Amino acid sequence: MAATQAQAPAPEVLGAFEAAKGFMPVHEGLALYAAAREAAALGLPLLEVGTYCGRSTILLADAARAAGVSVITVDHHRGSEEQQPGWDYHDPQTVDPEVGRMDTLPTFRRTLHKAGLEDHVIAVVGRSPQVARIWRAPLGLVFIDGGHTDEHASADYEGWAPHVAEGGLLVIHDVFPDPVDEWTGQAPYRVYLRALESGMFTETSVTDSLRVLRRTGAAGSGRG
Ligand SMILES: C[S@@+](CC[C@H](N)C(=O)[O-])C[C@H]1O[C@@H](n2cnc3c(N)ncnc32)[C@H](O)[C@@H]1O
């Protein structure tokens, strides 16, 4: 499903997304936005794993605002493996000089403030599996864009996919079926395959590395 006119963000929202630090290209952002608009109509919160500096959060928050729901965005704000010093995706500006470690929380807060979307987002600072363990509420959408190792991507899937309500959407970023395209590994692809094989999810759209799946079945209806 492509982002239709009605599902496209307003120019100022798209402008804020483009101006924010982050890695998601515009065409994938538009697909995420379309999914978020659709899922938010269920009247349930939307949840993101992997806030970074808030680039994708802007789109989720605008979709949530339109439907009167909230976005929960989870991140420990210390960066993923490939964002650490010495790696391709490192941004020295994200390092807290006092602590000597990455801290993307201040940039995230400025991003949301500038976009005027603070009131629609609940930021959770913590490790995704730890937060998932105590989470109880059904979700309209889960967007997985956290750590890209098998350990992290699997934990995100296991922790959050069961909370997607029937009819809700599971969105996975950086799904690269061809190892030639990989830059941080194929863990998101393996999680995507697992979701399809579980029998709980059916694919609804593919936009480059962004995959949207709908929850159509109950837990235990496939291979898990
Ligand atoms: C690829 S970035 C997210 C990009 C963001 N969605 C965007 O579009 O700009 C991945 C983020 O996941 C966070 N992260 C990685 N593993 C995590 C974990 N186990 N728990 C919480 N956050 C994690 C990192 O700190 C990093 O900010």
From TrEMBL:
Superkingdom classification of source: Bacteria
Gene3D superfamilies named among the record's database cross-references: Vaccinia Virus protein VP39
GO molecular function: methyltransferase activity
Stretches assigned to coiled coil: none
Name of this protein: Class I SAM-dependent methyltransferase
GO CC terms: plasma membrane
Pfam families reported in the protein's UniProt record: Methyltransf_24
Keyword Protease among UniProt keywords: no
Keywords: Methyltransferase, Transferase
DNA repair listed as a keyword: no
Entry's Gene Ontology BP terms: DIM/DIP cell wall layer assembly; methylation
